[in-house]
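Please produce the structure of this protein holding phenylalanine.
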Amino acid sequence: MIDKIKEHIAEIEKFTSDSKEAIENLRIKYLGKKGLLNDFFAEFKNVPNDQKKEFGQTINQLKTVATEKINALKEALDNKTVETGVYGDLTRPSEPVELGSRHPISIVKNQIIDIFSRIGFNVSEGPEIEDDWHNFTALNLPEYHPARDMQDTFFIQTNPDILLRTHTSSVQVRYMENNKPPIRTISPGRVYRNEAISARSHCFFHQVEGLYIDKNVSFADLKQTLQFFTTELFGKSEIRLRPSYFPFTEPSAEVDVYWGLETEADYRITKGTGWLEIMGCGMVDPNVLENCGIDSKEYSGFAFGMGIDRITMLLHQITDIRLLSENDVRFLEQFKSAL
Ligand code: PHE
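Below is the modeled complex.
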């Protein structure tokens, strides 16, 4: 009996085929429910005790040899069909491809950049760790100026001259120092303020600030630019400018866009007024131009600044600013289909 099994083993070892059916027949013959292997196992109880050990080892060997042979032949067959360009099983489900998504802040930032680039603005960037001059002094905010309190600042303790920028106006100062007018640039980036974190404010957020300097730039140019922007981004062209104060612009204004009062959400986000504040703006103060080496008698300009986080929350109906920095994939995955 043992010899007979050994013959089978030798036969399997010799066997080769590239036919699917032949391989399947081999499997059924040995490993199938009514296959030889099961027959031999059933025979086990009739084997004399002194041969049981060898018999057992031999049928196990038969099982291993048959299994390995069948697997090897199947694999060779699969490879062969791939090589010849005839793919095995076209109905097999494909491997899932995991798609990433852009962060909502990046999506909205890109939209804003895109709108301004269409009217000739380029993009400028600068360091997040700034010095006092570029963040404050050059912008008409000398030391001890009370308006410095408008922006609670993170200073580096060992060197009060170094700080985390509180706005990207600092980039505009750098740009004016290094480029001659005409200037048309927007500066997107992350900014920091020493504020308590809540659903509506964070100690870091993102801004896009814009700067336009040329001969004869007027407040009317500013208004027209803002109106173009709100129409492109929100699809809303009605804006109003409320007088305000910024040390680096004169006159200064806060820009509201008419959002409407059509839905309950409109009431909530506009506090029932229909108007929504979206940014600050103004004509660049002549002192600032002079600080940056630009002749304020020859040139004038306007500047504006807005928070990307607020606008993102508005456009995507996000009710808590903290979601934007928590990296929760359940939140981020919702932006897969966006730009
Ligand atoms: N820098 C101002 C801020 O961070 C925004 C602003 C920019 C206002 C330019 C006027 C002009 O609040």
